[in-house]
Structures are given as C-alpha cells and as structure tokens.
Amino acid sequence: MVSMIDPVSATNLHLFPALYNPPNPCFPYPLNRGFCSGTLQLAQVIPTFIKITPVNNRSCIVCLLLLLPALLRAQTNTGKDSLLQLLRTAKEDTGKVLLLNELGYLAENNNPEEAKYYYKQSLQLSEKLDYKMGILKYYSNYTAALNMQGRYDSGLLLNKEALTVAEKFGIKDRIAVVQHNIAASYIYLEDFESALSWHLKSLPYFESSKDDGRLSVIYDNMGIVYREVKLYDKAIEFHEKALAIARRNKNEFDIGIVLSNMGNDYTSAGNYPRALEVLHEALAIGRKLGDDFILKNVLLNIGNIYIKQGMYDSLPAYATEGLAVSRRVGDSLTIASNLYALGLYHLYKKDYSKSMALAEEGFRIAEQNRYLEKWQLHAGLLSELWLAQGDFKQYDKYNRLSVQLSEQFFNQGMQKNAQLLDKKYETRQKEQQLQLQQATIKQQHTLNYILGGGMLALLLIAGLVYRNYQQKRRLQQQQINELEQEKLLLATQSILKGQEEERSRMAKDLHDGLGGLLSGVKLQLGAMKGNLILSEEHARVFNNALGKLDESISEMRRVAHNMMPEALMKLGLQQALQDYCDGLSEGQSFKINTEFHGLEQRMTPSTEVVVYRIVQELLNNAVKHSGATVILAQVMRQENGLSITVEDNGRGFDKEQVVQGAGLKNIRSRVDYLQGQLDIQSVPGKGTSVHIECTIEMHG
After folding, report:
1. Is 227 within 8 Å of 268 (Cβ atoms)?
2. Taking the C-alpha atoms of 372, 378, 380 and 385 in order, what is their torsion angle to the nearest 10 degrees?
C-alpha cells in the first residue's frame, strides 16, 4: 500500500501510527448495581401478575417490584415504558427505590444524565425511608454514571464517602463491594498500585462467598491492572478467569466487556491477529445488545490496530461507525480519536479536502477540551495536509504547535507521576501513624488490665514486658522509617531514570526522525528553486520559507541537544559541562568561569546525567534570576567524593521569603538520588552560593 502513494506522503503516513495512541479503554464497573440478569420479558410477566393480583393490594405491588431483579436486564423500549407507568402509581416505599434504580440502569449507557436523575431520586427516597441498602446502592449507581462521563475524580470521592457510610452501617458485604469500587476508580485514574491494593482487600471476602458474578468483575479489573503494568500474561490469565465465569453464567454483557479488555491485552502484547479475533467477538455482542458503551470502545480499538498495522483501507468502516456511536453518547475524547483515524485514511487516499475538514473538527474538539495528545495528533495531521498542498506558512504554524504540544504532553505526564508518588507517600505515612496509634492504645489497655491485678510480681513482669515492647517498637519504627526512606529513594530514582530515558528517546526521535524529514524537505525545496522561474515577490516568499525551515531545523537540533547532549554520552561529563557553559555564555553580558577536576574517570551513566542536570539547573537559575556578571561552576571529584559548587555575584535573595519553585525541587530530588547534602547561602545584594556534597560509586 505504501508504494501507491508519493514518497513524502509515505514517510508521513509511516510516522503517524507511531504517534497515534488512542485511549486504551478499560471497563472497571461497580458491583451490586441495579437488578440481577433475567431471561423473561417484563411485558410477559406483568399482565399475568396483574391478572391474579388485587389492584388495591399494596403488598402485592411491592412483591412485584421485588421480583423485578429476575425480569429486567433484557428490556426493550417497551419494558422501559412499562416501568415508567409503574413509577407514576408506585407508593413511597422500598419497591419504588428499586424501580428508580432500574430505570437509571436502563438509561445509563446511552444517557448518563437521565440515569443520574433517577439515582438522585432513589437516594432522596431511601434517606426518607432510612433504607440503608438503598442509600449504599445509590453510591455504586451514581459512580457508574460519573465514570460513563469520564468524571473519575468525582467517582473516587463518592466511593470513599460510600465506604464511610458502609462502615458506619457495619454491613460487611457492602464494605467489600465499596472497596472493589474504589479500586475501579483508581483504575480509571491510572493509579494502578492503589487499585491493586484495594482489590486485594476485597478479594478474600468474595472468594469465600463463592459469588461468581462478583468474582468475574474483580478478576476482570485485576486483569486490567496487570495489563497497565505491562504484565500481559498475568492480565490474560485473570481475564480468562473472568471470561470463564461470564460464559458459564451466559451473561452476554459481561462477556462483551471481558472480551474487549482481553483484546486490549493482546494488542498491548503485539499479538494483533488474536486481538482482532477477540475484539470482533466483542463487537458482535455490542451490536446484538445495542450497547453504545461497548461499541464505542471496541470500534476505537479495532481502528487503532489497523493503524498500527498500516491497514488504512480497513479503517473507514470502523472509524465511521465509532464516530456515530461516540457522537450519540457525547464522548468528545473518542469523537476526536475517530476523526483523526478518518482524517488519516483520507490523507492516505489523497483526498486532502475531506481529510482537512475532519482534522479541523478534531483539532477544535481537542483544543476546547484540552486533550493534549489528540490536539498534538490533529496539529501534526494538519501540518502534513498543508505541506502536501504547498502552503509552507500554515505547515510551519501547525508543525511548531505539534512539537510544542508533544513537549507539553510529556511534561504533564512527568508532573502527574511526581504528584502521584507524593500523594502515595503521604497516604502511607498517615496509615502507618494510625496503625501505630491503634497498637499503642491496644497495648495500654492490656497494661491497665495487668496493673489491675494488684500483685507485686505481676506488676514487675508487666513493667519488664512493657519495657521490652517499647524497645521493640522503637526498633520497628526505626526499620519502618528506613524502609520509607528506601522507598522514597527508589521512587525518585525511577522518576529520574524515566525522565532521562524519555528525554533521550525524544531527542533521538527529534534529531533522527523530524530532523531528517526537515532536512529532506529543505533539499527538495532547494532543488525546486533552481528549476523554477519565480517573480521577485514569489522568490522573496520562497526564500523566506527556506529561512523559516532553517530556523526550524536549528531550533529542533537545539531542543534535542538540551534534552540529551551528545557530548555527555560520547566525551564524558567534563566536556559536556564545558560545552554547555561555553554555549550558555557565548555572546552574553556575563562570564562563566569553570573548574572541573577529577572527572577523567567515568562514572555510571545515570550518575553523570544527574550531575549534569544539577549543574544545568543551577546555571539556568543563576542566568535567569541573579543578574550576575560573573558565575563560577565548579565540579570536583576525589575518590568516592563529589562536590558541586555554583556561585554568582548577582542580586541574591532572602531565603526566608523566597518560595521554592519546581526548579529547586528538581535539584533537591536529584541530590537525594545521589544521597548528598545541599547547602544554599545567599544575601540580598551579595550574590548566591550553592554547594553540594555527595558520595558516588566507583566506575571504571
């Protein structure tokens, strides 16, 4: 297929699938929502029931509503109309609560706002009746509707509120259910470690209760967690468990959900044929059930596989249907994704006007909703379209925006990971403090009982036991503190390693991929210039475009070099630092004096990168904020000791009044990675001195 299009388009089409990364939808959903699945139609049962039941017998109407769990899962529009008729005459009792919940469930997939309306009514009535199960089911149901709308933070807060209520009521079954639902919320929020922790809290209860339906849901969600941490075999194992239960119970909705998630497992593992096989089975179920939630995600993932394989001729059918479903549901994220897939297909077919219309619509949606990844994809697609049509000004505009958005997306991911680690650390500290307090209280109660005996010998024994306990507790606390420090260090190391790996990858992609492409475009344009007869005005415009292209190539190379300097990898830390200082001070009003000693012997690559980033950040701070005329950068190594000093004669600052920004936090985290000490000395009007001492590993 590539040979059917011109070389420039072929190259661009080859790049887009690598950048295209649509959401990998997962389907964690709350337990115990609505009624159980049934096989009878409501229209078949209600007439028979009414025929043998006195109309004015209120208890019989309640019985009818209590029978609804076995009747209402496979309902059509006729079934919903029948429920609405019942609602108009229903009494203010628990039966009406169940009826409102079922109406909400029937509306949930296609109209979440309507579902939320019914769920709120069920909560109001449950509180009025003091119906505990009705109150708890409201939380599960309303959370599911929020998840349908992508409001996962609100869903997590509501689930945690539900846990407090369930613990207050003391209902073990509901406590386990809410623990599962909290895990589902964390899956949506991509905090997979927390999700797995909450799943493991709830799993023993459900396994002991032999509840197949609930186990299927939990196994399915645990499969999602394992997939997201790239343990694909483990993910498939848990999804197979969930699928076996769903097939045994002949629950088509659960089968469709599990198959869709399993298709994502195979896609992530690179087994595209098996992924398509599984996803097409899920698609057939979604179409049979008319379930938009299953359809929009399965269609999107099938299209994603075809893009990854370069099978663009297979895209339109699935992307077109997926776009229609996404518009019907009102999911702007999948709308933008399907618009991109269709725009990519029409670019492949050289239908530039159609591709342009789709890309512009997707661009507007992504921009309005701040979907950075989709925004960047559509900007890249628009730049390719304008280039294909020879409008270099528009090409340059959207190409610059695409690069800028890509960098923003990367930075946003790094910030999110750092914030998540901070939150996890704080939560664990609070949990450990609570456990210690509870242990102390329990031990104090035990001691009080012993002291109540009144015997001197028992008092002596109790004193010895208490002393021994205190000593053990101090040792345990010391061990806990050491473990926490190790965990924090490992987390910091992982973040820094991930940042540098991603910087290196992006620098290589920019330099080798985008740089080669831009250079090729420049050469082609230069060749064209010699063969074209242009007016003076057109020649000026053409030369201006070539100048802009040169600027783009230079800027791209500068960005790539800053992200991962080539000198650091090839020539070592000393030469990389010297090059950076020379480049920073070149043509400037300030001077950077350098002193580097003992750096001839190479350190580990990760250590050299961290040291380079520390010096880079300190010099940038001095240049941006100090107004100095002379800056000293000094790095000294003696055996296992390493010292870093950056001084300037600038304006200085008051350490008590300056708020620490992201730059200083980054420096502190890197110093912690080196297990070093950071000392900052500054006096207003007299400059600033930053000194770092750390111990490094020997590396020849």
Report:
1. yes
2. -170
pTM of the model: 0.44
Q: Which of 360-374, 486-500, 654-668 has the lowest mean pLDDT?
A: 486-500
Residue 131 CA to residue 125 CA, distance in Å, equals: 8
Per the document, the length of the chain is 700
Answer for the pair 218, 239: CB distance below 8 angstroms, yes or no: no
- Mean pLDDT over each residue of the chain, to the nearest integer: 76
The beta strand positions in 239-295, using DSSP E, are: none
How far is residue 273's CA from residue 128's CA, in Å, rounded to a whole number? 55
Q: Measure Cα distances from 529 to 73, 387, 498, 539 in Å.
A: 69, 16, 44, 8
Closest alpha carbon to 138 in 158, 109, 108: 158
Interatomic CA distance for residues 569 and 604, integer angstroms: 11
Separation of alpha carbons 352 and 402, rounded Å: 19
Task: Supply φ then ψ for residue 688, to 5 degrees.
Answer: -140, 145
Closest CA to 283 of 269, 293, 270: 293
Cα separation, 334 vs 129, whole angstroms = 41
pLDDT of residue 77: 56
Residue 259 has pLDDT above 70, yes or no: yes
Q: How far apart are CA 500 and CA 483, in angstroms?
A: 26
* ∠ CA 517-520-526, rounded to 5°: 145
Q: In sequence order, which residues have a C-beta less than 8 Å from that of residue 75 and are 6 or more positions away? A: 41, 42, 83, 106
Q: How far is residue 6 from each of residues 9, 311, 351, 391, measured CA to CA in Å?
A: 6, 17, 14, 18
The token pair that represents 390 in the structure block:
């020879």
User: Is domain 567-695 classified as CATH 1.10.10.10?
Assistant: no
Find, among 488, 479, 447, 486, the residue nearest to 466 by Cα. 447
pLDDT for res 280: 95
590-608 burial, b at 16+ Cβ within 10 Å, e below that, comes to bebebebeebeeebeeebb
Closest CA to 144 of 125, 159, 161: 159
Q: How confident is the model at residue 557 (pLDDT cuts 50, 70, 90)?
A: low
- What tokens were used for 465? 């036991």
Helix 77-89 × helix 94-108 angle, to 10°: 150
Listed residue (281, 275, 247) closest to 262, CA to CA: 275
Strands 688-695 and 677-682: antiparallel
Q: Which token pair is 569? A: 């990898």
Tokens of 413: 């991911």
Given a contact cutoff of 8 angstroms between Cβ atoms, the answer to whether 33 and 144 are in contact is yes
For 409-425, the pLDDT digits (tens) are 666 655 555 555 555 55
